[in-house]
Fold:
Amino acid sequence: MRRILTSLLIVALAASFTLARGGPGGGPGNSACDLPSIVKDLPYEELSAAERDGVIYMIEEEKLARDVYLAMDDLWGLRVFRNIARAEQSHMDAVFSLIEKYGLPDPVGDNGPGEFTNPDLAALYNQLIEQGSQSINDALLVGATIEDMDISDLQVDLPEADNEDVRTVYQNLMKGSRNHLRSFYDLLQSNGVDYTPQYLSQADFDAIVSSPKERGMLDADGNPMPGCSGPAGRGGGRGRGGRR
Structure:
């Protein structure tokens, strides 16, 4: 019975994070600094095969993060999971704006929490849920692992992308993931638990967790975007993760 109720709650939470389009992408933002709006305004350029495949994979990878964090929020009641799940929804919105702009197939569609077109991500979801269900610290380790993986994948995808809109989305997704990794790492450290990177190099990982939280919007080259230097959005906050 608890499993059924938990599944229903996760579905409801995921739906509450879904914006007006009726799927994972949401409608355009109401700010010039909103990523979907920026994508819409940037030039249309033909996608390479690598860009196409990267965008299609990335929306499901962001969904993986969102779905796992919603499940961990329901299980452990840590604000960090709900806050970062909201940020992952905004990441999905940004990637969907590329899917919509270029008429790409949307692998998310009407899939519910834990449902994936990519079988590898489906298997990874189950593995991460099992691990994160063991303890609060295991759940935080799962969060660090997801962000570690996301940054590593984006480090691979970014050099293969030359479209300005794709690069802009990737730069901001990677910035968000760096902030999320800092949040999870800080909480683990506060609990006396260490995390060893599984995807990033130790040098890259150390550089991220030892640097301050990043704010504002980045352009396609990773530089601050003029006029978009406001708050970094919801990411759990450094050192914030108490029960709601």
Q: What stands out?
A: The longest helix spans residues 49-76. The chain has a mean pLDDT of 87.
